[in-house]
Amino acid sequence: MEENRKKIEPSGKFEFPVLQDNSSCCGGDIAPKKEPCSPPCLDQDFVSGSIATPQGNIPRVSSTLTRQDQWGTIKARLGAGRMSYAIDPGLYALGKPDEQSPVLVTANYKMSFDYLRQSLPSHNAWILVLDTRGINVWCAAGKGTFGTQELIDRIETSGLKNVVRHREIILPQLGAPGVAAHLVRQASGFRVHYGPVRAEDLPAYLDSGFRATADMRIMSFPLKDRVVLIPIELLAAARPYFFAALLFMILSGILGPSGFLKNILHDGMFVAGALLLAVAAGTVLLPLLLPYLPGRAFSVKGLFVGLVVAVGLIYMRGMNLQIWAERVQALAWVLIIPAVSAYLGMNFTGCSTYTSLSGVKKEMRFALPMEITAGSLGIAAWMTSAFLA
Amino acid sequence: MRSLVYLKDVATIKLDEQKCTGCGMCLDVCPHHVFAMNGKKVRIDSRDTCMECGACSKNCPAEALQVQSGVGCAAAVINSMLGRNGGECCCGPQTDKDGSVKNGGACCC
């Protein structure tokens, strides 16, 4: 107890690694992880004060997000600092909670924490933040870091038993793949209630005495949830796209009918544009149109979008299908664009909220060979058409 | 609200009705309404919406549910096929034993 109290004092120059520009979502440089304070530091940017408890001063947060919080969310959605967007694990106070207030559990990904507190204006609650290494609840539950043991340990180290009188905690339903509620109760005495999937349903859930309606329990995938994923998907595809486009431009410069630079301007730019359309089909159109595209497999949906885009491109370019060279080139794009968009579509399974591992494996068994074959044939056709021109 | 449906007849979820005590925990944790009550026991009502997240088997006190759970993410399957990134999906940085970050992981979630 005494030790805890000492630790909770503001520790002077704590540099919280919230907004790091230099990390990208896909294997970019990641800032070395600073040792988080435990109990949570009071001088984190979003902490607006503290509240005295038998367990010492607990940092207090508001349900209103500041501009800085919102900017952090935008940056994370764009991939900047997304992998180090973490807060200190431990107990926080939302509003002015007392010993009877409900306890809500979440991950230490700041966006998860922000969504949670934002959904509870004019509520008083304790928020117990688990150390998931800055990963959201669902993904961390899948990995087991939002897990039974971490929850039991965090209940213990946070001194939750001394802060509240009741023995009930509310977990997000999407944390359930990582947490065995009955084991938590055995080990800690706290009964786990699974709250709604979405934080926005929490007020209704709390007000009805921990009762979730059937709708609150379903993980849907509405348009707004799909749209926010588009920037990250585009960014993930950007690097491979850049190299592929560069390669194709150089090839078109070498293989084309005129001089190197003239070829690049005439054909190379078109190739770069066509590939960009293929990427956009798989990373923008597919998420937008997901429920309306034919097929269940994501690669089939991607294939469909790609075919439509390819046919549109051929039409817009005004390719003359009477000429062999242009006919072969048209064929090349009908193969390459759907291959790319089907592949990117297949990768979108990881973002979706309803694909199973067995299903993804089954899909990949037929889709991956087809994508590779179509892509290779398409490249061969494109090179042939460049020779014929 | 209706759940979107992925491929049919692939989910590995199994229910041992002998063991089921009808506590209803699986109905609470399932994000896709796979289960329904059938008298005093649970039955699998909608197998094709199961996304194999493992929430039900993890939270079944009677161990009546089994599912080969995993993340339905093609990038993760590709990564594990290539031996890259420890077969991680998306959901974050790959870390080594000391907890220092090695790799940002592929993307999605």
DSSP strand tally of chain B? 6
Mean pLDDT level of chain B: 78
Largest interface: A-B, 70 and 55 residues
Structural class of chain A: alpha/beta
Number of helical elements of chain A: 14
The appropriate CATH architecture of the largest domain in chain B is 2-Layer Sandwich
Structural class of chain B: alpha+beta
Q: Based on the coordinates given, report the CATH architecture of the largest domain in chain A.
A: 3-Layer(aba) Sandwich
Largest sheet entry of chain B = 2 strands, antiparallel
Radius of gyration of chain B: 17 Å
Please tell me the total number of domains of chain A: 2
How confident overall, as mean pLDDT of chain A?
87
> What's the Cα radius of gyration of chain A?
26 Å
Helix share bin of chain A: 40-55%
| Multimerization state | heterodimer
| Major β-sheet strand ordering of chain A | 1-2-3-5-4
Topology:
The complex is a heterodimer of chains A (389) and B (109).
Chain A: H1 2-8, E1 49-53, E2 56-61, H2 67-77, E3 90-94, E4 103-107, H3 110-118, E5 125-130, H4 137-143, H5 148-158, H6 160-163, E6 168-171, H7 181-188, E7 191-194, H8 202-207, H9 223-227, H10 230-255, H11 260-289, H12 298-317, H13 324-347, H14 357-388
Parallel strand pairs in A: 2-3, 4-5, 6-7
Antiparallel strand pairs in A: 1-2, 3-5
Helix pairs in contact in A: 5-7, 10-11, 11-12, 11-13, 12-13, 13-14
Chain B: E1 14-15, H1 25-29, E2 35-38, E3 41-44, H2 55-58, E4 65-66, H3 74-81, E5 94-95, E6 101-103
Antiparallel strand pairs in B: 1-4, 2-3, 5-6
